[in-house]
Automatic annotation (TrEMBL), chain A:
Keywords: Signal
Source organism of the structure: Streptomyces griseorubiginosus
Source organism phylogeny: Bacteria, Bacillati, Actinomycetota, Actinomycetes, Kitasatosporales
Protein name: Peptidase M75
Secretion signal span: 1-15
Source domain of life: Bacteria
From TrEMBL, chain B:
Annotated signal sequence range: none
Listed name of the protein: Deferrochelatase
InterPro entries attached to this UniProt entry: Dimeric_a/b-barrel, Dyp_perox_C, Dyp_perox_N, Dyp_peroxidase, EfeB/EfeN, TAT_signal
GO biological process, alphabetically ordered: iron import into cell
Domain Dyp-type peroxidase N-terminal span(s) in chain numbering: 61-214
Cofactor annotation remark: Binds 1 heme b (iron(II)-protoporphyrin IX) group non-covalently per subunit.
GO molecular function terms noted in the UniProt entry: ferrochelatase activity; heme binding; metal ion binding; peroxidase activity
Reaction equations catalysed: heme b + 2 H(+) = protoporphyrin IX + Fe(2+)
UniProt KW Lyase keyword: yes
Lineage, highest ranks first: Bacteria, Bacillati, Actinomycetota, Actinomycetes, Kitasatosporales
Domain Dyp-type peroxidase C-terminal: 226-397
Role description: Involved in the recovery of exogenous heme iron. Extracts iron from heme while preserving the protoporphyrin ring intact.
Annotated GO CC locations: cell envelope; cytosol
Family note: Belongs to the DyP-type peroxidase family.
């Protein structure tokens, strides 16, 4: 199913303009005020207007020069609002962005080098195009979900930490996987903070030079590989609770957009594909299928929240995703006796043929899931 | 129309024009000697030849009688969907992608320039590369006919291969509901093709196994120098040429059942060579094993490679003697194999050999007959068959409205 860029789609200005990304609003696409013709040559960068209403703008770029060029829309401090590279001679491109009122620079870079030929432009008055209210609701509901997961994780993590501190290896082993479920369901949110994930969920092979190994997986190694709990482990258990509390308190401030929700769902499946299917994530405890299930659940949550909009834009994709989520859930259920429990088969007992089947199921789901973000922002033809 | 279509033209895109050249080349190949001379070396095709596109459309699928390219990526797939309509749609999607890739174009809307939020349709690693004579050839394995109510359509000639003497088959390198043979002069073009088809297939099919091949071991252009296999011997001297329409008709193209008319049958065998022991073997024994001399490739007692072999002069267990049509009631197959080296095994030996590919009118009268006769082959001491598959290769995709497998899956066909 091909996705066609509508004129009211935000392009790459996501980070700078999170409040207005993920826009699906239609309506003023024929509004000439919002279209700026940019004619790039080897020596000039002509713009058809220097003032335009804030909100949605569209750059209709034509390269009439002999060199490949780039066109940027820049903030006054040269931060990039949006850009388009590799515009060949004789070709036309469209770039869209959402901009607030203020001064901007449009720069053409013939030969794709240097600071470019610049024009100062101004976005006036106006209002940023509003996002589909259903997407605002989806973001709000997802934020609530992420908060609930963090809130529910803390007591489970404390049970785990208490067992470690009591030196009770068996009790700690039992509490380990359940303490990770909420985290695994919403990991992209936690990862967006940058600093928490490396403290709580890093694996030994993921350590950077000089980084101290802390978090769940260090304790996993002690419990299953070393089969003993050291004094240092007890300190790490406290540290884990401190770091997870930090996570719990920051979820509410996380930068969440419809696009980041959709991409987060896809990233959860990436996590499954690269870490869980291979058995690398939980190499000592072999509780990979618990994480696998939690990742899928988190992805499915994002998907369900975005589905009403995605269905309007790409019904076939939604049909396929419904089918593939159901298929992977059915497949995972083969590995637990009780469908309400998270007591999954130890992954070291899952043979190569079964692992391939799981991998095939992940591929079958992740490929269409990679198209969800586009379906949230554009209508497919 | 999206801006992708107006994007700066990479050379693969620029070479769309080669489609015409490809047609011309194809015609030349069918009619005679192309631009190759007897002294020519088709292991290093001329620039034009290496860059050209081979026409995807035709009575027969390309990649059988068309000139053999230098590189291979062969993939066997299992079908996971139980929905016939979904599978048929995938065959149509594959056909559309194959049509573009063989013409040197990117899949779908291309590899860049599309929506920033969506992964590009094409994976991009073939941008800037020439069409490289890419051919994509689709086959249906016996196990496919157990699905989609196809049992009644299974051709009699598509038999399951029996166990042959010396077989040590790995089930993870054998069988498959479907296969795609991707051949090109540039390995990246061949790999790109399989990768993109696999991606389109996610959710409908899964890759069961795949094999990379380098260095063709047979050619269908006899005027070119005969390639050598990893044992250092010329292989396929008397192979069926793409120009020999009579022999192709007699030995390669299927005449039925109806949906297979113009198709063929493909046998794929991963043949591991015991490279290290072979290399310690005396020249005399090596030449005795094959029944040809190592330098010229001439049959025992003859001066030139293409001199007619006098089989009784060879050892009774010589490979050429046992495999020759005269020893097999005339049985002849079109060989299209490739050398492979998948690194080394855990014992420090090269994991190398011949990925044998052969097309034939009837598997029973072709490969099975010959392979049974090779039970006493002296070569068996130095090789082992470790993978095996057989496929019915349907006729060609006729035109832009046709699709792979239409004759099997379209009720009105």
């Amino acid at each position: 199913m091909r996705a066609v860029r509508l004129s009211l789609v935000t392009a790459t200005a996501v980070a700078a303009l999170t409040a207005v990304t993920g826009c699906t609003e239609k309506g003023n696409s024929g509004d000439d005020d919002r279209v700026i013709d940019v004619t790039a040559t080897d020596s000039k960068c002509e713009v058809s207007k220097k003032e335009f209403p804030a909100g949605h703008v569209e750059l209709a770029i034509e390269n009439k020069g002999s060199k490949v060029t780039e066109v940027y829309v820049l903030f006054p401090d040269d931060r990039i609002v949006t850009e388009r590279e590799n515009i060949g001679p004789g070709t036309k491109h469209k770039v869209t962005a959402e901009v607030k009122a203020g001064d901007y620079t449009i720069a053409c870079k013939p030969g794709m080098k240097g600071d470019g030929i610049r024009q100062t432009v101004k976005a006036t008055g106006g209002t940023a195009a509003k996002r589909d209210p259903r997407l605002d609701s989806a973001v709000a509901a997802y934020r609530q979900y992420a908060q609930e997961q963090a809130d529910a994780t803390l007591p489970l993590a404390k049970t785990f930490a208490a067992a470690v501190k009591a030196g009770d290896v068996e009790a700690a082993k039992k509490a380990y996987a359940p303490s990770r479920i909420g985290w695994e369901r919403t990991e992209p949110v936690a990862e967006s903070f940058g600093d928490i994930d490396p403290k709580v969920d890093v694996r030994e092979d993921g350590l950077e030079d000089g980084q101290k190994w802390t978090g769940w997986h260090r304790l996993e190694k002690s419990l299953w590989q070393d089969k003993k709990i050291t004094a240092a482990d007890k300190t790490l258990a406290d540290q884990l609770i401190t770091d997870l509390t930090d996570w719990q308190q920051r979820v509410g401030k996380a930068d969440i957009t419809p696009t980041s929700m959709a991409n987060g769902a896809k990233e959860l499946l990436d996590e499954v594909a690269t870490g869980k299917v291979t058995g690398e994530e939980e190499r000592y405890s072999h509780t990979d299928l618990v994480d696998f299930k939690a990742n899928v659940e988190g992805a499915e949550k994002s998907y369900e929240l975005l589905k009403p909009v995605a269905k309007e834009n790409n019904a076939a994709l939604v049909t396929e995703l419904d089918k593939q989520f159901a298929a992977i859930d059915t497949l995972l259920d083969k590995y637990r006796a009780d469908k309400t429990s998270y007591d999954f088969t130890s992954y070291d007992k899952v043979g190569d043929a079964d692992r391939k089947q799981l991998s095939d199921g992940v591929n079958a789901l992740a490929e269409p899931l990679s198209k969800l973000a586009a379906a949230v922002v554009t209508k497919s033809s | 129309m999206t801006d992708t279509d107006k994007a700066p033209a990479p050379s693969r895109r620029a070479l769309i024009g080669w489609g015409g050249a490809g047609l011309a080349l194809g015609a030349a190949a069918a009619g005679g000697a192309v631009a190759l001379t007897r002294e020519g070396d088709d292991l290093q095709p001329t620039a034009a030849e290496a860059g050209a596109a081979v026409d995807f459309h035709g009575t027969h699928q390309a990649g059988i009688a068309t000139p053999v390219q230098d590189r291979l990526h062969f993939a066997a797939f299992d079908v996971t969907t139980e929905d016939r309509a979904e599978f048929v749609q995938m065959l149509k999607d594959w056909t559309a992608a194959a049509r573009r890739m063989t013409a040197g174009k990117a899949v779908g809307e291309g590899a860049y320039g599309g929506l920033a939020e969506a992964p590009p349709d094409d994976t991009g690693e073939a941008l800037g590369l020439k069409p490289s004579r890419l051919t994509l050839t689709l086959g249906f394995g016996p196990s496919l006919f157990e699905k989609f109510d196809l049992a009644g359509q299974r051709p009699e000639a598509l038999v399951d291969l029996p166990q042959f003497a010396g077989d040590n088959l790995d089930k993870n390198r054998s069988g498959g509901d479907l296969c795609v043979q991707a051949c090109a002069d540039d390995p990246q073009v061949a790999v790109h093709a399989i990768r993109n088809l696999a991606r389109i297939g996610f959710g409908k099919v899964v890759i069961k196994w795949s094999q990379l091949g380098f260095g063709k071991t047979s050619s269908t252009t006899p005027d070119a120098q005969t390639p050598r296999n990893l044992m250092g011997f010329k292989d396929g001297t008397r192979n069926i040429a793409g120009t020999e329409t009579d022999r192709l008709q007699k030995f390669v193209w299927a005449e039925g059942p109806g949906w297979m008319k113009g198709g063929s049958y493909l046998v794929a065998r991963r043949i591991r060579m015991h490279i290290e022991t072979w290399d310690r073997t005396s020249l005399q024994e090596q030449e005795d094993v094959f029944g040809r001399d190592k330098g010229e490739g001439a049959p025992v007692g003859k001066a030139k490679e293409r001199d007619k072999p006098f089989l009784p002069a060879m050892k009774p267990d010589a490979h050429v003697r046992l495999a020759h049509p005269d020893s097999n009631g005339g049985a002849t197959i079109l060989r299209r194999g490739y050398s492979f080296t998948d690194g080394t095994d855990g014992l420090g030996r090269l994991d190398a050999g011949l990925f044998f590919l052969a097309y034939m009118k009837d598997v029973r009268e072709g490969f099975i007959r010959i392979q049974r006769h090779l039970a006493t082959d002296a070569l068996n001491e130095y090789i082992q068959h470790v993978g095996s598959a057989v496929f019915a290769v349907p006729p060609g995709v006729r035109d832009k409205d046709d699709w792979w497998g239409r004759t099997l899956f379209s009720k009105e066909a």
